[in-house]
Structures are given as C-alpha cells and as structure tokens.
Amino acid sequence: MPELDYLMRKRIQRIVVAVIAAVPIMAGAWALSRREPPALRVNSAMVFDDAVNRGEMLRQVHGIDTPPPETVVVIPSGNVGRVERRTCLPVTAGRPRDNATETK
After folding, report:
1. What is the dihedral of CA 83, 88, 90, 94, to 10 degrees?
2. Taking a C-beta distance cutoff of 8 angstroms, is the pair 91, 77 a contact?
3. What pTM was estimated for this model as a whole?
4. Quick one: three-class SS letters along the chain?
C-alpha cells in the first residue's frame, strides 16, 4: 500500500515541522516570562539631577492629600481636681452647658 505509506510519511513530517516550529516559540515565551519588569518612567522635571550634598534636607510637602495643620487649644480648668467619672466620650456631640467630667 504505497498510498498509505505516503500519507503516513506526510503526517509524520507535519508533526516534526510543528514541533520544530513550536520549540523556539515556547523558548521565547519562557524567556519573556523570566524578564524583570521595566523601570517606571519619571517626569524629568521631578528629578533632582545635581551633586549630592551632606546636611539637612528641608522637606516641604504641599498638595491635594496634605491635611491642614491642626491647632491645639488649651483650655484652663476652673478648679484643680481629679477626674472621677466621664459622663460623655470626647467624640460625642453635646450642648455647651453639659458637664463632661465630674471632679472631686
């Protein structure tokens, strides 16, 4: 059966060519998967490209996410004493005349 031998050789030849073509493609895919990710691009206006100097660095950050500075107000108490019991927590809303603590 010469026709079957011819078909069998053609089939084997196609398989060999497919394997030979698949090996470099798989090797290239493996090599690409092993690479490190590229460095991030940075705007050149944001980079300081000057000589390195020793000393203090003044860091001033201003932007959208920067909260405004908090002001601390110290309120002197009317009398000296020790807090016995808190009648409300600091985060609860109250009226101006509510007494938040009981002193001894």
Report:
1. -130
2. no
3. 0.34
4. CHHHHHHHHHHHHHHHHHHHHHHHHHHHHHHHHHCCCCCCCCCHHHCCCCCCCCCCCCCCCCCCCCCCCCCCCCCCCCCCCCEEEECCCCCCCCCCCCCCEEEC
pLDDT digits (tens, 9 = 90+) for 48-83: 777 777 777 766 666 666 666 667 677 676 666 666
Q: Which tokens in the block code for residue 5?
A: 């031998």
Could you give the CA distance from residue 17 to residue 23 in angstroms, rounded to a whole number? 10
- The set of residues, in sequence order, having a beta carbon less than 8 Å from that of 79 and lying 6+ positions away, is 103
**Sequence letter at residue 15:** I
Tokens at 93, concatenated: 């809303």
Segments making up each domain of the chain, as ranges: 1-33
